[in-house]
Write a structure and sequence with these properties.
Elements lengths: L6 H4 L16 H13 L7 H4 L31 H16 L5 H4 L8 E2 L12 E7 L3 H9 L4 E6 L4 E6 L2 E5 L8 E4 L8 E5 L12 E6 L3 E10 L4 E12 L5 E7 L4 E6 L7 E5 L10 E5 L37 E7 L4 E6 L4 E8 L5 E3 L3 E3 L1 H12 L5 H4 L4 E6 L8 E7 L4 E8 L5 E9 L5 H13 L13 H10 L1 H4 L4 H9 L7 E7 L3 E8 L4 E9 L1 H7 L4 E9 L2 E6 L16 H4 L7 E6 L3 E6 L2 H7 L3 H11 L1 H13 L5 H13 L5 E2 L10 E2 L2 H18 L4 E3 L13 H5 L7 E4 L3 H20 L21 H38 L7 H4 L5 H8 L3 H5 L4 H20 L4 H11 L6 H18 L5 H17 L6 H13 L3 H13 L4 H13 L8 H36 L10 E3 L5 E3 H15 L3 H13 L14 H9 L3 H13 L3 H12 L7 H15 L8 H30 L5 H11 L6 H12 L2 H10 L5 H22 ...
Parallel strand pairs: 1-27
Antiparallel strand pairs: 2-30, 3-4, 4-5, 5-6, 7-8, 8-9, 9-10, 11-12, 12-13, 13-14, 15-16, 16-17, 17-18, 17-19, 20-21, 21-22, 22-23, 24-25, 25-26, 26-27, 28-29, 29-30, 31-32, 33-34, 35-36
Length: 1423
């Protein structure tokens, strides 16, 4: 590959120093922010406490039932990938290890204290500590130590691995681990040394090479020495700083430092119970020396002058309450401790009073102490008796004295603050609570008594001897199974005594009487020194929690044993860090989890003969030292068979052990545990199988090897990066970094990676070698003889093989992941001038920030698209770097594929080659377009071959290069092909169908995600179209603006229509043609929606594709504008029936459309019905026309009703608004209009119109409405009193209504209305005489013809037998005469057949004298 390939191809647009930085908060960063917030809070839990991890993949044993999170639910063996099964199992194993029971919760569950103490047998193979080394003093020191009679103390400076010895005023420091006899002596101190302390110095006081300070206390002064220690060369240098402070009379014997501020606290026997602070600086002022002291528990002058115990009269500054006592012995501090996690200082006085002070850091940086919380012996006894009723324990608690106190950090327990040791060996557990401010409360919650003494065991032994039993307390081998149960579940049952007897024995136990000194080493290991006066020796004992029983059974048991005796034991000092598994109470005591990642605990016992080193025996050491079937069985019974198998697997792979031991361990691993099993109550399917102990053993071993890094971020940020209060990277801190490179390396060291990689290879090699012996490691084969078939066995074998296949996949993936990280380190160290920053130089700041949030588990289980993309980005960045350096890309790819093929797959190689081809195409001159297109097509083919692993960002980068060479149509077709190359194309199409056919969609469904993924490709296509549209317009505008439009005839010409064609307009046309021609329904739908979003939806009417009609039809269901567009589409294509049908449906739809618009739609639809249509739809068109006409009639009534309600004076604004809301929208049915509005509101005229439209034929209801209407008119007339006469008003109103109803006899019955109107006019206003013919005129003006009215009135005259009102007959005849005369005047034909004399002579109407009737009767011709 050419050297110039790389940077142009792979580097994103990097952020320069002048660019604004705005990091996007990705999901990876959000998870990392949560971790930072929790870690920087009150407690620093491990990642598993913050992110709940999933359980084993459907593993139904009790050990596998863990809390699960929503994100990581149970993984099914049959449906999950092997890698997912493996990583999920690791997650679950670590989660379980990190959530074991809290010691303080388990310790208080028992009425008696449970010990595993078996004199004189001891603990046998399960002994917890062994002596690992004896370090003698240098000969000269030993001689001096034994010959002196002066004050002699000794100890160990653990920080620098040196021991110290004081002989009078001389301090000797020597390397107790070295075989040399060299030592360092400080003999310039003038007075006897009381105590020494090695501490960390305050920053910016001494030079950087001074990494420790040595404090030396004498009866007169405190001296500060500077210490320079080089751990690599083991070089120690001590300098006298000249700093000292007078402490005459204090007798300082205790120093403690507060880690947060490096402040030094001290106290002395000569100053009661006061606490002092030692200050030092590199500046000296008038009133402040470089070194001074201050009392923090007294005020004013007494803060700098001590209170002397021996000199009467000098206590002039008052006496504290704690000093007032009838006891002649003056109280002083015997011990001082600081709980660094809670910022509490504890002191223990010679009167067994515990005082607790809150350490407060002021804004100025100085510290002060709060008012003390004191707990004396009586207070502690009161708490215990109140809580537990310990009256029967008075022999242990009477007149006790507190020997020592030990703080318990909040990493170990939230509630337990302190453990106090009495002189009888009892332990008092003190709970506490620290409130805001100075509030601090302490209460004794539990008293742990020592084990029964030898007298009790002798008594039990004697009683057994009397009963004929073996006087020994030893247990025979056939009782080994009972041993574990009884000792660790019920000690009283094992010894054949009651719990009450055992409790009484512990309460009077003298086993630890004479306790001289003690030490509690976290986690809760109790060391003690007994002074045996009869033997003039010190005896060492230890009581260790059985962490395995605590983890496996949630039970608290301590293994108590005596170790060795010495002439004199000075002190017990912890040499190595504690082996806590977590930094939270849950999981803190799980020693099994940390046994492979932390060194075994070592404790130094300082004696008069030398330093004796004791080492804690981890589970693997216990099993290794006695590797046999009995020990394995006992181990499995105590801690579970999975733990036993996991330990033997570790021993099988352990380096440097004999083949016999390895073979035995392998045998126990394969045969010692339980096989895969199936609950008989469950269906025999693979997902219901509980896998074997061998599977869990491998998972446990791997999880514990990787637990320290599994949830740890891999990549380290530069120190300049800061975080905001929410845990996110501050954009401002990134801006300050000029090169915008925020990653500085890996958080995992090279040594750690190499160690884990080599260990992993050993495990893989072991599994491969023993594959044929390990059930499930190979695919199962079944031999069915005699038609015998064990279905359960078959299912279990299949499940076991799935599990082991997942293990192999996991181990190989982790191996390649570690190899990839090691490759990164090697690349960053490939030359003197190279660094890790060079590897990420081609990555964007956003990608670097995301990488900094990537944990090792996410790195291994890289199924998330974002993780895959980040890994590809860093891989591409490495490729770029090596290309710039001139190194062959093929060589790098080959190296990566050989070492970590899954991180550099074949698809990655195809991508590299594709981009190389793109770069070549870019470099080819425009004069050879065919060759350029050939390279472009070749690169597209390569990318398509790797489509499953090509990230969207990579595709975008390829498209950008294509666009740079104006390969627009090819880029569009490439994007569309990649969108359809997804294996989930069908689901995204289904989502699209659901979108148009359903009102509601499931959020976060897989369909939606696949749809969104394809939509990203489509959006990129649309962006390309926008780009080419812009360039096309600009190119035309540029030419139009120039004086000579034909300056470059090669790139433009004019068509026959006068349109200007340029290179970009041609590219635009071909790009759109490519889109329209592509066969993808989903794309076309999104394409058409894009047209609408761009405001050019009308262009859809010009599109001729197989998808446009379906798109418009599906969209019209939910979108009004699309429905209108569909109408226009049908109209343009002369499909008038479909257009009318859509408009009719719109008028009846639930869209928010006003009533007037609905009426307009109906009118347009009616117009389409009148258009020419094919004969095949003529009948449907006629029916549609009828439906439309009916709906128009109803809508007109609704419109009149709405206007009537709005103009009705009776209504309120609220009611009118409600009516408008109900009526100015969807067209209601005629029944709804009448029943809900017209009838209740008394709109009688509209009621009659409704009767007409609906062809209502109930005459009584019709006449009732007419009568109500006439009454309403009369009421309105009476109320308003207009200037017109009543009959005139009624006449006008009736005529207005009659014209609307005259053509419907059922609603406008003339005879009935004539009678009703005649009665109403003549009787409603008796004072007003209506003129003759008023009724006839009303009907005539209403539209009733003369002939119809004549025949109606003639029939009424002939048929009237009773009068509706008095004078009705006379009134009727007069109206008839008026009718005939007026008819005669207006009808020429009538005048031709009837003489005027006959008409004029009519004064009283009679049928027989009716000239018209006589003519008809005579001639038989109707008029």
């Amino acid at each position: 590959m050419p050297d110039h390939f790389g940077q142009v191809l792979w580097s994103k647009k990097t952020t320069t120093a002048n660019d604004d930085v705005k990091l996007e908060r990705s999901e990876l960063q959000k998870k990392a922010a949560v971790r930072r917030i929790v870690q920087n809070g009150i407690r620093r839990p491990t990642p598993l406490r913050m992110l709940k991890m999933p359980s084993y993949p459907q593993m139904n044993g009790t050990d596998s039932k863990l809390d699960t999170s929503k994100e990581n639910s149970d993984i099914k063996l049959t449906t999950s990938t092997p890698l997912k099964i493996g990583t999920n199992a690791i997650n679950s194993a670590i989660s379980k290890d990190n959530n074991t029971v809290v010691l303080s919760d388990a310790i208080s569950k028992y009425a008696i204290d449970n010990y595993n103490f078996q004199p004189p047998l001891g603990l046998g193979p399960f002994s917890r500590f062994e002596k690992s080394n004896i370090l003698n003093f240098p000969d000269r020191l030993f001689e001096e130590y034994n010959s002196t009679e002066c004050i002699t103390n000794m100890g160990i400076f653990q920080q620098i691995g040196k021991a110290w010895l004081t002989v009078d005023n001389k301090l000797i420091i020597f390397n107790f681990k070295s075989a040399t006899q060299d030592y360092f002596t400080i003999d310039e101190i003038r007075h006897s040394i009381l105590t020494v302390k090695l501490i960390k110095p305050k920053p910016n006081v001494f030079v950087d090479s001074v990494n420790y300070l040595l404090l030396v206390s004498t009866p007169i002064d405190i001296y500060i020495f500077a210490v320079e220690y080089n751990s690599v060369k083991d070089k120690l240098e001590i300098f006298n700083t000249g700093m000292s402070v007078s402490t005459q009379g204090l007798i300082v014997d205790h120093f403690e430092t507060f880690d947060k501020t490096h402040d030094i606290f001290f106290c002395g026997k000569g100053d009661s119970v006061n606490v002092w602070k030692l200050s030092y600086s590199n500046n000296e002022e008038w009133f402040h020396k470089k070194c001074n002291k201050e009392c923090l528990t007294r005020n004013s002058l007494s803060t700098v002058v001590p209170t002397f115990n021996k000199v009467p009269g000098l206590n002039i500054f008052g006496t504290s309450d704690s000093e007032i006592s009838t006891n002649n012995e003056r109280e002083s501090i015997s011990q001082m401790q600081i709980d660094q996690s809670r910022s509490i200082l504890y002191t223990l006085s010679t009167r067994s009073v515990v005082r607790a002070y809150r350490i407060k850091v002021l804004s100025s940086g100085t510290v002060s102490l709060s008012h003390p919380t004191a707990k004396g012996p009586m207070d502690l006894l009161k708490d215990l008796s109140t809580t537990y009723g310990l009256s029967n324990l008075t022999p242990q608690t009477k007149n006790f004295k507190l020997l020592k106190i030990f703080p318990v950090t909040n990493f170990e327990s939230n509630s337990l603050f302190l453990i106090a040791i009495t002189n009888t060996g009892s332990r008092i557990f003190i709970n506490g609570s620290a409130n805001l401010g100075d509030g601090l409360a302490l209460i004794a919650s539990h008293l742990k008594l020592p084990p029964p003494d030898h007298k009790f065991f002798q008594k039990v032994s004697d009683e057994k001897a009397k009963q004929g039993k073996d006087s020994s307390l030893a247990i025979s081998s056939n009782e080994s199974s009972k041993l574990s149960e009884n000792i660790y579940g019920n000690t009283a049952s094992f010894l054949n005594v009651t719990a009450l007897q055992l409790g009484q024995a512990q309460s009077v136990s003298e086993l630890l009487t004479g306790l001289k000194n003690c030490e509690i080493i976290s986690p809760n290991i109790f060391f003690g020194i007994l002074r045996l006066k009869s033997e003039n020796t010190d005896r060492l004992f230890v009581s260790t929690p059985d962490y395995g029983v605590l983890k496996n059974n949630n039970s608290y048991v301590e293994d108590f044993e005596f170790l060795d005796s010495y002439g004199l034991i000075h002190d017990i000092i912890q040499l190595t860090p504690t082996f806590n598994a977590t930094e939270t109470p849950a999981g803190y005591y799980n020693q099994f989890a940390s046994q492979y990642t932390k060194d075994p605990l070592e404790v130094a016992v300082l004696t008069n003969t030398g330093i004796h080193i004791y080492r804690y025996r981890t589970p693997d050491l216990i099993l290794e030292d006695s590797l046999n079937d009995n020990t394995f069985k006992a181990f499995a019974e105590k801690y579970g068979s999975r733990e036993a198998c996991s330990t033997t697997l570790y021993l099988s792979c352990r380096f440097g052990k004999s083949e016999d031991n390895k073979n035995k361990a392998t045998q126990l691993f394969i045969c010692g545990g339980q096989n895969a099993s199936l609950n008989k109550n469950l269906t025999p399917v693979v997902d219901n199988v509980e896998l074997s102990d061998r599977f869990y053993a491998v998972i446990l071993l791997i999880s514990r090897m990787f637990r320290d890094i599994w949830f740890k971020e891999i990549f380290k940020l530069v120190p300049e990066i800061k975080f905001d209060s929410n845990g996110f990277i501050e954009d401002g801190s990134v801006k300050k970094i000029e090169d915008r490179i925020i990653l500085s390396g890996l958080t995992i060291s090279r040594n750690t990676i190499e160690y884990l990689l080599s260990s992993l290879l050993i495990i893989l090699d072991f599994l491969e070698k023993n594959k044929r012996s390990i059930p499930g490691a190979l695919p199962p084969t079944f031999n069915y003889e005699n038609n015998f078939r064990d279905r359960d066995f078959e299912v279990c074998s299949q499940a076991e093989h799935i599990g082991f296949r997942a293990i192999f996949q996991l181990l190989n993936t982790v191996k390649e992941g570690l190899s990839f990280l090691l490759f990164l380190i090697e690349e960053s160290e490939s030359s003197k001038n190279s660094s890790f920053k060079d590897l990420v130089r081609f990555m964007s700041v956003q990608d670097q920030a995301d990488l900094s949030s990537l944990t090792f588990s996410q790195f291994i289980d890289n199924t998330e698209e974002q993780t895959q993309r980040l890994l590809k980005e860093i891989l591409f960045s490495i490729i770029n770097r090596n290309i710039v350096r001139g190194i062959s890309v093929d060589l790098i790819i080959k190296n990566l594929q050989e070492r970590c093929g899954s991180f550099c797959s074949t698809s990655d190689v195809l991508i590299f080659k594709a981009f190389e081809t793109l770069k070549r195409a870019k470099d080819i001159s425009k004069r050879d377009p065919n060759l350029r297109v050939k390279h472009l097509q070749a690169s597209v083919d390569l990318l398509k071959q790797a489509n499953n692993l090509v990230t969207f960002d990579t595709i975008k980068e390829a498209v950008e290069i294509m666009l740079e060479v104006n390969y627009y149509s090819g880029a569009i077709e490439f994007l569309l092909d990649m969108a359809n190359a997804s294996p989930n194309t069908t689901t995204s199409d289904a989502y699209n169908s659901d979108y148009y056919s359903s009102d509601k969609l499931l959020t976060n469904s897989s369909k939606e995600k696949d749809y969104e993924k394809r939509h990203m490709f489509y959006k990129n296509v649309f962006d390309i179209l926008v780009d080419i549209d812009t360039k096309a317009v600009e190119s035309v505008q540029l030419i139009n603006d120039t004086e000579n439009r034909f300056q470059n005839e090669e790139n433009q010409f004019i068509t026959q229509n006068g349109d200007l064609i340029t290179e970009f307009t041609q590219l635009r046309d071909t790009s759109y043609a490519t889109c329209f021609a592509y066969q993808d329904k989903l794309f076309h739908y999104e394409f058409y929606k894009w047209f609408i979003e761009q405001g050019v939806g009308e262009r859809l009417l010009d599109i001729e594709t197989p998808y446009i009609l379906g798109f418009l039809q599906e969209c019209a269901v939910k979108d009004l504008q699309m429905a209108k567009l569909l109408v226009a589409f049908h109209s343009k294509h002369e499909n008038y029936y479909a257009a009318a049908k859509i408009l009719y449906d719109l008028a009846n739809s639930d869209f928010t459309i006003s009533l007037s618009d609905r009426v307009q739609y109906l009118s347009q639809a009616n117009g389409f019905c009148n258009c020419v249509c094919p004969p095949s739809v003529r009948q449907e068109m006629i029916e549609m026309s009828t439906f439309i006409a009916d709906l128009i009639a109803v809508s007109n009534i609704q419109e009149i009703l709405l206007q009537t309600i709005i103009s009705d004076e009776r209504g309120t604004e609220e009611s009118k608004s409600k009516a408008k809301e109900d009526l100015d929208g969807k067209i209601l049915t005629i029944s709804e209009l009448f029943n809900d509005f017209i009838n209740p509101l008394g709109y009688y005229e509209l009621a009659l119109i409704v009767f007409r439209i609906s062809d209502y034929r109930n005459t009584d209801d019709v006449l009732s409405q007419w009568e109500l209407l006439l009454n309403k008119w009369h009421t309105d007339y009476t109320k308003n009193r207009p200037n017109e006469s009543f009959y005139t008003v009624v006449s006008n109103l009736f005529i207005s209504v009659g014209r609307k109803l005259r053509d419907t006899e059922t609603v406008f019955p003339v005879p009935d209305l004539f009678r009703l109107l005649a009665k109403f006019i003549n009787q409603s206003q008796p004072s007003e005489k209506a003129p003759v013919g008023i009724i006839v005129d009303i009907f005539l003006k209403s539209g009733v013809t003369y002939d119809k009215l004549y025949y109606t009135l003639k029939e009424m005259v002939e048929s009237t037998t009773f009068e509706p009102f008095e004078g009705f007959t006379k009134f009727l005849k007069s109206e008839m005469i008026y009718l005939i005369k007026n008819w005669y005047k207006t009808d020429r034909r009538l005048r031709d057949v009837v003489s005027s004399d006959q008409i004029l002579s009519m004064t009283d109407y009679q049928v027989d004298t009716d000239p018209i009737y006589n003519y008809i009767r005579t001639t038989g011709i109707p008029i």
